[in-house]
Design goal:
Number of strands: 0
Radius of gyration: 21 Å
Shape: globular
Distance between the termini: 12 Å
Strand content: under 5%
Number of helices: 17
Protein backbone atom coordinates (compact mmCIF):
# COMPACT_ATOMS: atom_id res chain seq x y z
CA UNK A 1 0.00 0.00 0.00
CA UNK A 2 1.58 3.29 -1.07
CA UNK A 3 1.79 6.19 1.36
CA UNK A 4 -1.16 8.50 1.71
CA UNK A 5 1.05 11.47 0.89
CA UNK A 6 2.00 9.90 -2.43
CA UNK A 7 -1.66 9.03 -3.02
CA UNK A 8 -2.80 12.60 -2.40
CA UNK A 9 -0.25 14.01 -4.82
CA UNK A 10 -1.13 11.35 -7.37
CA UNK A 11 -4.79 12.34 -7.18
CA UNK A 12 -3.88 15.97 -7.84
CA UNK A 13 -1.63 14.98 -10.75
CA UNK A 14 -4.48 12.94 -12.23
CA UNK A 15 -7.01 15.72 -11.67
CA UNK A 16 -5.23 18.43 -13.64
CA UNK A 17 -5.30 16.71 -17.05
CA UNK A 18 -8.62 14.96 -16.34
CA UNK A 19 -10.38 18.23 -15.51
CA UNK A 20 -8.62 21.16 -17.14
CA UNK A 21 -7.17 19.05 -19.95
CA UNK A 22 -10.59 17.58 -20.57
CA UNK A 23 -12.13 21.03 -21.06
CA UNK A 24 -9.48 21.81 -23.65
CA UNK A 25 -9.55 18.50 -25.52
CA UNK A 26 -13.33 18.10 -25.78
CA UNK A 27 -13.81 21.65 -27.01
CA UNK A 28 -15.67 22.97 -23.97
CA UNK A 29 -13.10 25.66 -23.23
CA UNK A 30 -13.29 26.94 -26.80
CA UNK A 31 -17.10 27.01 -26.62
CA UNK A 32 -16.90 28.93 -23.36
CA UNK A 33 -14.59 31.51 -24.92
CA UNK A 34 -16.93 31.95 -27.89
CA UNK A 35 -19.88 32.51 -25.56
CA UNK A 36 -17.98 35.11 -23.56
CA UNK A 37 -16.63 36.88 -26.66
CA UNK A 38 -20.02 37.03 -28.38
CA UNK A 39 -22.05 37.80 -25.26
CA UNK A 40 -24.46 34.95 -26.05
CA UNK A 41 -24.42 31.22 -25.44
CA UNK A 42 -25.03 28.99 -28.46
CA UNK A 43 -28.62 28.37 -27.33
CA UNK A 44 -29.31 32.12 -27.29
CA UNK A 45 -29.05 32.62 -23.51
CA UNK A 46 -27.26 35.90 -22.68
CA UNK A 47 -23.68 35.89 -21.35
CA UNK A 48 -23.02 39.17 -19.58
CA UNK A 49 -19.59 40.77 -19.16
CA UNK A 50 -20.23 42.96 -16.12
CA UNK A 51 -20.90 41.22 -12.80
CA UNK A 52 -19.31 43.31 -10.07
CA UNK A 53 -18.57 46.55 -11.90
CA UNK A 54 -14.83 46.09 -11.26
CA UNK A 55 -13.09 45.30 -14.57
CA UNK A 56 -10.33 43.15 -13.07
CA UNK A 57 -12.76 40.95 -11.13
CA UNK A 58 -15.16 40.74 -14.07
CA UNK A 59 -12.39 39.59 -16.38
CA UNK A 60 -11.12 36.97 -13.91
CA UNK A 61 -14.62 35.64 -13.26
CA UNK A 62 -15.70 35.51 -16.92
CA UNK A 63 -14.56 31.90 -17.29
CA UNK A 64 -16.44 30.89 -14.13
CA UNK A 65 -19.65 32.50 -15.32
CA UNK A 66 -19.54 30.78 -18.71
CA UNK A 67 -18.80 27.46 -16.96
CA UNK A 68 -21.56 27.63 -14.36
CA UNK A 69 -24.41 29.41 -16.15
CA UNK A 70 -25.58 26.43 -18.28
CA UNK A 71 -25.10 24.07 -15.30
CA UNK A 72 -27.16 25.82 -12.65
CA UNK A 73 -30.42 26.19 -14.61
CA UNK A 74 -32.18 22.88 -13.93
CA UNK A 75 -32.07 19.10 -14.27
CA UNK A 76 -29.38 16.61 -13.33
CA UNK A 77 -26.68 19.23 -13.83
CA UNK A 78 -28.14 21.45 -11.12
CA UNK A 79 -28.46 18.47 -8.75
CA UNK A 80 -24.80 17.57 -9.25
CA UNK A 81 -23.81 21.20 -8.69
CA UNK A 82 -25.74 21.37 -5.41
CA UNK A 83 -24.05 18.22 -4.17
CA UNK A 84 -20.53 19.14 -5.26
CA UNK A 85 -20.72 22.74 -4.09
CA UNK A 86 -22.00 21.77 -0.64
CA UNK A 87 -18.90 19.59 -0.20
CA UNK A 88 -16.70 22.33 -1.65
CA UNK A 89 -18.09 24.95 0.74
CA UNK A 90 -17.70 22.55 3.65
CA UNK A 91 -14.06 21.97 2.71
CA UNK A 92 -13.65 25.73 2.73
CA UNK A 93 -14.70 25.69 6.39
CA UNK A 94 -12.09 23.02 7.23
CA UNK A 95 -9.43 25.23 5.67
CA UNK A 96 -10.71 28.33 7.48
CA UNK A 97 -10.48 26.55 10.83
CA UNK A 98 -6.91 25.41 10.20
CA UNK A 99 -6.02 28.91 9.04
CA UNK A 100 -7.34 30.35 12.32
CA UNK A 101 -5.51 28.01 14.71
CA UNK A 102 -2.74 29.56 16.80
CA UNK A 103 0.92 28.91 16.13
CA UNK A 104 2.96 28.65 12.96
CA UNK A 105 1.56 26.90 9.91
CA UNK A 106 2.50 25.56 6.53
CA UNK A 107 2.00 28.27 3.92
CA UNK A 108 -1.02 26.50 2.43
CA UNK A 109 -2.79 26.71 5.79
CA UNK A 110 -1.51 30.23 6.40
CA UNK A 111 -2.99 31.42 3.10
CA UNK A 112 -5.97 29.06 3.13
CA UNK A 113 -8.52 31.58 1.75
CA UNK A 114 -6.41 32.10 -1.36
CA UNK A 115 -5.79 28.37 -1.71
CA UNK A 116 -9.53 27.61 -1.36
CA UNK A 117 -10.32 30.25 -3.98
CA UNK A 118 -7.84 28.58 -6.35
CA UNK A 119 -9.33 25.11 -5.91
CA UNK A 120 -12.73 26.59 -6.65
CA UNK A 121 -11.37 28.14 -9.83
CA UNK A 122 -9.33 25.16 -11.08
CA UNK A 123 -11.45 22.27 -9.83
CA UNK A 124 -11.51 21.12 -6.22
CA UNK A 125 -9.78 17.84 -7.04
CA UNK A 126 -6.68 19.60 -8.38
CA UNK A 127 -5.69 21.12 -5.03
CA UNK A 128 -7.79 19.64 -2.21
CA UNK A 129 -5.74 16.40 -2.04
CA UNK A 130 -2.56 18.43 -1.46
CA UNK A 131 -4.34 20.38 1.28
CA UNK A 132 -5.31 17.08 2.95
CA UNK A 133 -1.71 15.89 2.88
CA UNK A 134 -0.44 19.14 4.36
CA UNK A 135 -3.06 19.19 7.10
CA UNK A 136 -2.22 15.63 8.16
CA UNK A 137 1.46 16.52 8.35
CA UNK A 138 0.61 19.56 10.46
CA UNK A 139 -0.59 17.20 13.17
CA UNK A 140 2.99 15.94 13.57
CA UNK A 141 4.35 19.36 14.47
CA UNK A 142 4.46 20.91 17.92
CA UNK A 143 2.00 23.69 17.28
CA UNK A 144 -1.06 24.75 19.23
CA UNK A 145 -4.40 23.34 18.02
CA UNK A 146 -6.35 26.11 19.74
CA UNK A 147 -8.16 29.01 18.10
CA UNK A 148 -8.61 32.47 19.61
CA UNK A 149 -12.01 32.17 21.29
CA UNK A 150 -13.42 35.26 19.60
CA UNK A 151 -12.54 33.90 16.16
CA UNK A 152 -13.86 30.46 17.08
CA UNK A 153 -17.19 32.10 17.91
CA UNK A 154 -17.07 33.89 14.56
CA UNK A 155 -17.05 30.57 12.68
CA UNK A 156 -20.80 30.21 13.15
CA UNK A 157 -21.88 33.45 11.45
CA UNK A 158 -19.13 32.90 8.87
CA UNK A 159 -20.80 29.64 7.80
CA UNK A 160 -24.15 31.30 7.19
CA UNK A 161 -22.86 34.52 5.64
CA UNK A 162 -19.78 33.32 3.78
CA UNK A 163 -20.76 29.77 2.76
CA UNK A 164 -24.49 29.13 2.80
CA UNK A 165 -25.73 32.48 1.51
CA UNK A 166 -23.58 32.51 -1.68
CA UNK A 167 -24.54 28.84 -2.22
CA UNK A 168 -28.23 29.75 -1.94
CA UNK A 169 -27.96 32.65 -4.36
CA UNK A 170 -26.21 30.61 -7.04
CA UNK A 171 -27.97 27.26 -6.73
CA UNK A 172 -31.35 27.99 -5.11
CA UNK A 173 -31.99 31.51 -6.34
CA UNK A 174 -35.38 33.24 -5.97
CA UNK A 175 -37.73 32.80 -8.95
CA UNK A 176 -37.66 36.52 -9.64
CA UNK A 177 -33.89 36.53 -10.28
CA UNK A 178 -32.97 37.88 -13.72
CA UNK A 179 -30.16 36.35 -15.84
CA UNK A 180 -27.84 39.28 -15.19
CA UNK A 181 -28.47 39.04 -11.43
CA UNK A 182 -27.88 35.30 -11.46
CA UNK A 183 -24.55 35.64 -13.22
CA UNK A 184 -23.57 38.25 -10.64
CA UNK A 185 -24.52 35.71 -7.94
CA UNK A 186 -22.25 33.15 -9.61
CA UNK A 187 -19.39 35.62 -9.33
CA UNK A 188 -20.32 36.32 -5.71
CA UNK A 189 -20.21 32.61 -4.93
CA UNK A 190 -16.64 32.23 -6.23
CA UNK A 191 -15.34 34.58 -3.54
CA UNK A 192 -16.85 32.59 -0.65
CA UNK A 193 -13.42 31.76 0.90
CA UNK A 194 -12.67 35.46 1.26
CA UNK A 195 -16.10 36.19 2.72
CA UNK A 196 -15.53 33.51 5.36
CA UNK A 197 -12.13 34.98 6.22
CA UNK A 198 -13.59 38.48 6.37
CA UNK A 199 -16.40 37.32 8.69
CA UNK A 200 -13.97 35.58 11.04
CA UNK A 201 -11.68 38.59 11.19
CA UNK A 202 -14.51 41.09 11.53
CA UNK A 203 -16.53 39.31 14.19
CA UNK A 204 -13.44 37.99 15.95
CA UNK A 205 -11.50 41.24 16.00
CA UNK A 206 -14.23 43.69 16.96
CA UNK A 207 -17.24 42.02 18.59
CA UNK A 208 -15.70 39.40 20.87
CA UNK A 209 -12.05 40.40 20.92
CA UNK A 210 -11.46 40.26 24.70
CA UNK A 211 -13.03 36.88 25.46
CA UNK A 212 -9.74 34.94 25.56
CA UNK A 213 -8.83 36.77 28.77
CA UNK A 214 -11.68 35.24 30.78
CA UNK A 215 -12.21 31.86 29.09
CA UNK A 216 -10.67 28.45 29.74
CA UNK A 217 -7.90 27.14 27.47
CA UNK A 218 -10.19 24.87 25.43
CA UNK A 219 -13.31 27.04 25.38
CA UNK A 220 -12.86 27.45 21.63
CA UNK A 221 -13.41 23.73 20.96
CA UNK A 222 -17.16 24.03 21.57
CA UNK A 223 -17.54 26.49 18.71
CA UNK A 224 -15.20 24.58 16.42
CA UNK A 225 -17.26 21.42 16.95
CA UNK A 226 -20.46 23.37 16.40
CA UNK A 227 -19.09 24.67 13.10
CA UNK A 228 -18.16 21.16 11.97
CA UNK A 229 -21.62 19.91 12.97
CA UNK A 230 -23.50 22.65 11.11
CA UNK A 231 -21.43 22.25 7.95
CA UNK A 232 -21.61 18.45 8.12
CA UNK A 233 -25.39 18.38 8.48
CA UNK A 234 -25.75 20.88 5.64
CA UNK A 235 -23.52 18.82 3.35
CA UNK A 236 -25.35 15.62 4.29
CA UNK A 237 -28.76 17.16 3.56
CA UNK A 238 -27.54 18.34 0.15
CA UNK A 239 -26.09 14.91 -0.69
CA UNK A 240 -29.05 12.85 0.56
CA UNK A 241 -31.60 15.06 -1.19
CA UNK A 242 -29.75 14.75 -4.49
CA UNK A 243 -29.36 11.00 -4.02
CA UNK A 244 -33.08 10.49 -3.32
CA UNK A 245 -34.18 12.72 -6.18
CA UNK A 246 -31.88 10.92 -8.59
CA UNK A 247 -33.22 7.54 -7.48
CA UNK A 248 -36.93 8.31 -7.44
CA UNK A 249 -37.53 11.30 -9.70
CA UNK A 250 -39.61 10.82 -12.82
CA UNK A 251 -38.41 14.10 -14.37
CA UNK A 252 -36.94 13.72 -17.87
CA UNK A 253 -33.17 13.55 -17.90
CA UNK A 254 -32.86 12.98 -14.14
CA UNK A 255 -31.62 9.57 -13.00
CA UNK A 256 -28.96 8.07 -10.76
CA UNK A 257 -26.68 7.25 -13.69
CA UNK A 258 -27.13 10.69 -15.23
CA UNK A 259 -26.21 12.45 -11.98
CA UNK A 260 -23.40 10.22 -10.73
CA UNK A 261 -21.87 8.34 -13.69
CA UNK A 262 -19.63 10.34 -16.06
CA UNK A 263 -20.55 10.03 -19.72
CA UNK A 264 -17.87 10.95 -22.23
CA UNK A 265 -20.21 10.19 -25.14
CA UNK A 266 -22.67 12.83 -23.93
CA UNK A 267 -20.03 15.49 -24.65
CA UNK A 268 -19.09 14.08 -28.04
CA UNK A 269 -22.75 13.88 -29.08
CA UNK A 270 -23.69 17.30 -27.70
CA UNK A 271 -25.09 19.95 -30.01
CA UNK A 272 -23.68 23.47 -30.14
CA UNK A 273 -26.38 24.58 -27.72
CA UNK A 274 -25.56 21.94 -25.09
CA UNK A 275 -21.79 21.59 -25.55
CA UNK A 276 -20.79 23.79 -22.60
CA UNK A 277 -23.38 22.19 -20.34
CA UNK A 278 -22.28 18.64 -21.12
CA UNK A 279 -18.57 19.44 -20.93
CA UNK A 280 -18.92 21.29 -17.63
CA UNK A 281 -21.16 18.53 -16.26
CA UNK A 282 -18.54 15.89 -17.09
CA UNK A 283 -15.93 18.09 -15.36
CA UNK A 284 -18.05 18.21 -12.20
CA UNK A 285 -18.70 14.49 -12.14
CA UNK A 286 -15.00 13.61 -12.41
CA UNK A 287 -14.17 16.34 -9.91
CA UNK A 288 -16.64 14.90 -7.40
CA UNK A 289 -15.29 11.36 -7.74
CA UNK A 290 -11.69 12.42 -7.11
CA UNK A 291 -12.76 14.66 -4.22
CA UNK A 292 -14.68 11.75 -2.65
CA UNK A 293 -11.60 9.51 -2.89
CA UNK A 294 -9.32 12.20 -1.41
CA UNK A 295 -11.76 12.90 1.42
CA UNK A 296 -12.03 9.19 2.10
CA UNK A 297 -8.27 8.78 2.47
CA UNK A 298 -8.09 11.93 4.60
CA UNK A 299 -10.81 10.58 6.91
CA UNK A 300 -9.13 7.17 7.15
CA UNK A 301 -5.74 8.62 8.12
CA UNK A 302 -7.36 10.95 10.65
CA UNK A 303 -9.30 8.09 12.23
CA UNK A 304 -6.13 6.01 12.32
CA UNK A 305 -4.43 8.72 14.39
CA UNK A 306 -7.35 8.77 16.81
CA UNK A 307 -7.69 5.02 17.22
CA UNK A 308 -3.96 4.41 17.63
CA UNK A 309 -3.67 7.20 20.17
CA UNK A 310 -1.48 9.83 18.51
CA UNK A 311 -0.14 11.04 15.15
CA UNK A 312 3.28 9.62 16.03
CA UNK A 313 1.89 6.13 16.64
CA UNK A 314 -0.03 6.29 13.40
CA UNK A 315 3.13 7.36 11.56
CA UNK A 316 5.08 4.45 13.03
CA UNK A 317 2.36 1.84 12.48
CA UNK A 318 2.33 -0.54 9.49
CA UNK A 319 0.67 0.96 6.47
CA UNK A 320 -2.14 -1.56 6.76
CA UNK A 321 -3.34 -2.23 10.30
CA UNK A 322 -6.57 -2.84 12.19
CA UNK A 323 -7.25 0.89 12.58
CA UNK A 324 -6.88 1.52 8.86
CA UNK A 325 -9.12 -1.45 8.05
CA UNK A 326 -11.89 -0.32 10.43
CA UNK A 327 -11.58 3.30 9.30
CA UNK A 328 -11.80 2.28 5.65
CA UNK A 329 -15.05 0.39 6.23
CA UNK A 330 -16.58 3.26 8.22
CA UNK A 331 -15.51 5.91 5.74
CA UNK A 332 -16.74 3.99 2.71
CA UNK A 333 -20.18 3.38 4.20
CA UNK A 334 -20.49 6.93 5.51
CA UNK A 335 -19.42 8.48 2.21
CA UNK A 336 -21.96 6.42 0.28
CA UNK A 337 -24.78 7.30 2.70
CA UNK A 338 -23.93 10.89 3.71
CA UNK A 339 -21.38 12.16 1.19
CA UNK A 340 -17.71 13.14 1.60
CA UNK A 341 -18.33 16.56 3.12
CA UNK A 342 -20.43 15.21 5.96
CA UNK A 343 -18.11 12.25 6.55
CA UNK A 344 -14.96 14.33 6.94
CA UNK A 345 -16.79 16.93 9.04
CA UNK A 346 -17.94 14.18 11.42
CA UNK A 347 -14.40 12.82 11.69
CA UNK A 348 -12.94 16.27 12.32
CA UNK A 349 -15.66 16.92 14.91
CA UNK A 350 -14.54 13.79 16.77
CA UNK A 351 -10.85 14.65 16.31
CA UNK A 352 -11.08 18.09 17.91
CA UNK A 353 -10.91 16.76 21.46
CA UNK A 354 -7.98 14.52 20.56
CA UNK A 355 -5.99 17.48 19.27
CA UNK A 356 -5.93 19.03 22.74
CA UNK A 357 -4.64 15.75 24.23
CA UNK A 358 -1.96 15.25 21.58
CA UNK A 359 -0.51 18.74 22.02
CA UNK A 360 -1.51 19.81 25.57
CA UNK A 361 1.53 22.05 26.05
CA UNK A 362 2.10 23.16 22.48
CA UNK A 363 3.51 26.63 22.23
CA UNK A 364 2.77 29.34 19.75
CA UNK A 365 5.42 30.52 17.34
CA UNK A 366 7.06 27.14 16.78
CA UNK A 367 8.50 26.90 13.29
CA UNK A 368 6.86 23.92 11.67
CA UNK A 369 6.44 24.04 7.91
CA UNK A 370 5.63 20.94 5.89
CA UNK A 371 7.29 18.07 7.75
CA UNK A 372 7.53 14.91 5.63
CA UNK A 373 7.85 11.62 7.48
CA UNK A 374 10.73 9.23 6.93
CA UNK A 375 8.45 6.25 6.51
CA UNK A 376 6.11 8.19 4.21
CA UNK A 377 2.84 7.15 5.79
CA UNK A 378 1.32 10.62 5.51
Amino acid sequence: MISSRATFYTLSVIAFPALLGGLLVNGTMAAMYRAWASGTFADGFPCYHVYSGLPVIDWIEAIQVTFWTPIVQNGAELLQARMLCASLQTAGLWAAIENTRKGSKHWILQYAPIYAFLWGACGVATLLPIYCSVELSQRLTNTSPRLPLAKARALIPAIFIGLMYPYYLMLMRPASTTPVQHQAFITFYQFSPFFVYACIQTFGSFLWKDEDKVAGPDADSYFVKAAYAIAGVWSAVAYISVLLISLFSSAPGVSFTRVFVPSFTAVSKATAGTHIKEGSFLFMQIDYIIVAVACGIYAVKTLEMMWLGSPEKAAAAPRWNHAVAAATVFTTVSTCLLGPGATVSAVLFAREGFLRKWRPEAKEGVVNGFKPLTNGTM
